[in-house]
Design goal:
Blueprint lengths: L3 E4 L7 H5 L4 E9 L5 E8 L6 H14 L1 E3 L1 E3 L2 E3 L1 E10 L4
Antiparallel strand pairs: 1-4, 2-3, 2-7, 5-6
C-alpha cells in the first residue's frame, strides 16, 4: 500500500508575492521514513521570476511539515522515495 497523507500542511503564501498578485504552481518530491515523517524534500519543478525563492521556500517548509501514513510492504512500514506533490499558490477570486 502506498504512502498517504495523514496530516496536511498548507504552504504560507509569500506576502510580497501575494500583495502583487503573483500566482504559481510548484512540484515537490519527498522522501518519507517508516515513521511517516518527511526526511527530505526537493523542488522538482519550481517557481520562476522575482519571487521564485519565496515560493520554493514556502513549499519546502509545508512539505517537511506534512505527515504520512507510511507505505507498507507485506504489512510492514517501508520508506518511500520520490513521493511527488503539487502546490498551487492561487489568489482567491
Amino acid at each position: 500500500v502506498e504512502a498517504v497523507i495523514s496530516k496536511d500542511s498548507k504552504p504560507r503564501y509569500p506576502s510580497r508575492a501575494q500583495s502583487r498578485g503573483i500566482e504559481t504552481n510548484l512540484t515537490v518530491s519527498m522522501d518519507i521514513g517508516v515513521d511517516g515523517k518527511v526526511i527530505e524534500a526537493r523542488i522538482v519543478q519550481g517557481a520562476s521570476g522575482r519571487y521564485a525563492a519565496d515560493f520554493n521556500k514556502a513549499a519546502l517548509r509545508a512539505a517537511k511539515r506534512t505527515l504520512f501514513t507510511p507505505k507498507t510492504i507485506d504489512g510492514r512500514a517501508a520508506p518511500t522515495n520520490g513521493f511527488t506533490r503539487s502546490y498551487k499558490f492561487k489568489l482567491a477570486d
